[in-house]
Design goal:
Length: about 350
DNA sequence: TTGTGTTTTATTGCCTCC
DNA sequence: GGAGGCAATAAAACACAA
């Protein structure tokens, strides 16, 4: 086991200067970055090797795990972290790549001996003077964005397959002049972005469906109101007509054979004719009593029918006050259809078929 | 110029699979 | 147990308004 306490001065990562990083590095001359595997700060938070190296190089610790002014413990415990410090990665950076120009902030190509391990070894305090430290740290690698061409290339590759097999990763890294790790990270982040976009799209689709349904519902409510007012209007007419009829009958002889005769089916079908409409002798129809039998043909199937059913039931109570008690046995379909002068087929209004 | 919000690059820990 | 994926997150880079 290898433990070492490493003080971290209170320096903001953003405002850090290369010199301060170098200073900190020099404060720990015995630090061997090749042995850095695992970091624990005083608050027992873990810091990976790359993060630790980053804190040295750039004056801060990514992830906010290390508290400034605190210290970390170095151990050689192995953690799963494909750190960019891996010297092997630098071999994948092709100097002849057409996509040169973007490197990871922890890419150490063109630095010293060209490998991460050697890069760090070159800072052995015993073998290097202060000037050399400062020379390196005054021009730190910054986090660099990929070039437009690199991104375009990666995007095309992502379109083909958003998963990255090891061979493909290495191939892409070579072609782009990046580290395989960078390619893997790019795909990882790209998948995350894709997923976010997908979620947004799904949300929009759901929202659109909801809006359509809502609009349909509002239309139905409007139509319902329209029909209700029409029913009310016709009910009023019926009441007036009833009044007139009763007044007329009271002035006539008690028994008028034509009116008291039972209504025949043929007569009813005449009354059901839309052309006749509600102006027909409704009293006669309801006097028959078993109207549901008469209007059996009005029955239809499907949810639409159910809608109409409720619709009819909804208006019946308001009609009770206008009609004789016998009407309570009447099929709501029949009542509505008859009152509106519509046959069963005519009930298939356009607005029902959303 | 500076403050602020967004995007991109990168790290970490956890999880699953082999 | 190692490799790779993912969610969460940090921080640099960038965009843009005041």
């Amino acid at each position: 086991m290898y433990f070492e306490s490493v003080p971290i001065p209170p320096i903001s990562p953003r405002s850090s200067s290369p010199a301060s990083s170098a200073t900190r590095f020099k404060q720990n001359p015995s630090t061997e970055f090749d042995n850095i595997k695992f970091f624990i700060n005083p608050r027992l938070k873990k810091i990976g090797p790359a993060m630790a190296a980053r804190s040295y190089l750039y004056g801060g610790v990514s992830g906010g795990e290390a508290e400034s002014g605190g210290s970390v413990l170095l151990t050689n415990k192995r953690v799963h972290c494909s750190s960019s410090l891996n010297p092997v990665d630098s071999f994948f950076v092709s100097r002849s790549s057409p996509f040169q120009g973007s490197r990871s902030m922890v890419s150490f190509e063109d630095r010293g001996n060209g490998s991460g391990g050697q890069f760090f070894q070159s800072f052995d305090h015993e073998d290097n003077g202060d000037d050399e430290y400062d020379e390196y740290f005054q021009q730190p690698e910054k986090k660099r964005r990929l070039t437009v061409d690199q991104v375009r290339f990666l995007e095309k590759s992502f379109e083909l397959d958003n998963k990255l097999e090891p061979d493909r990763k290495i191939q892409l890294a070579k072609e782009l002049g990046l580290q395989p790790r960078q390619v893997a990270i790019w795909f990882q982040n790209r998948r995350a972005r894709w997923k976010t976009k997908q979620l947004e799209k799904d949300y929009d689709d759901l929202q659109e469906s909801y809006n359509k349904l809502k609009a349909n519902y509002e239309n139905l409510v409007k139509e319902k109101e329209k029909l209700k007012s029409k029913v009310d209007e016709l009910s009023d007419k019926l009441m007036i007509q009833e009044k007139g009829t009763s007044e007329a009958s009271s002035t006539k002889s008690p028994c008028e054979p034509q009116l008291c005769e039972p209504v025949l089916e043929e007569d009813l079908s005449k009354n059901m004719n839309p052309a006749c409409g509600p102006e027909g002798d409704l009293n006669v129809v309801f006097e028959r009593g078993d109207s549901s039998y008469v209007f059996e043909q009005e029955q239809s199937d499907g949810s639409l029918d159910e809608e109409n059913d409720n619709f009819g039931k909804m208006f019946l109570p308001s009609m009770d006050c206008y009609t004789s008690p016998k009407i309570e046995n009447v099929d709501p379909h029949a009542v509505n259809s008859y009152y509106l002068g519509l046959s069963g087929d005519d009930q298939a209004f356009g607005f029902w078929s959303y």
